[in-house]
Amino acid sequence: MILDKVFIFLAMLLAHFLNGSNIFELGNAIRPDFMIIIVIFFAFRKGAMYGLWLGFFGGLLTDTSLGGEIGADNAVYYKIGLHSLSYAIVGYVIGKVTRNAYTENYISITIYVMGFTFLSRVITYFLFWMFFYSNHSYSFVYVSLYNAFIGPAIFFLLTWIFRLEADEVRQ
Description:
mainly alpha; globular; cell shape; membrane; transmembrane; transmembrane helix; Rod shape-determining protein MreD
């Protein structure tokens, strides 16, 4: 039980560092969002509460990499909580709504990862727009497609690492 949580924490740290690196970057703003893939995986496999909490803490990790901006009044503004709220919402919705719909095959994983990545990006964009300003360089489609392309490989790798069996899912 404790070892499982340690591995989940290590997977989230690895996703955080991969999100900050330029290893998988294509072009100027096209890079995958590994953290949402981790949240989607565990929300599917472990349920709504795992999705909620991993989304919250994974979003906080993602928000820490944003840094701060100096505003017009020379104060530094930090955008902590945007990804945290959107990832937590998406993780909870996945765990509650798609409980019986998830099947582990390439096509379904691709569709789910693309759709839920797009949903999390839309929620994050609207939160950013409501509290700060409109970010015109924020990518919805390209990140969703990139995540959909690499999502099945990450799902199968995480399934192998965590050795999750059908009877372990959603306990």
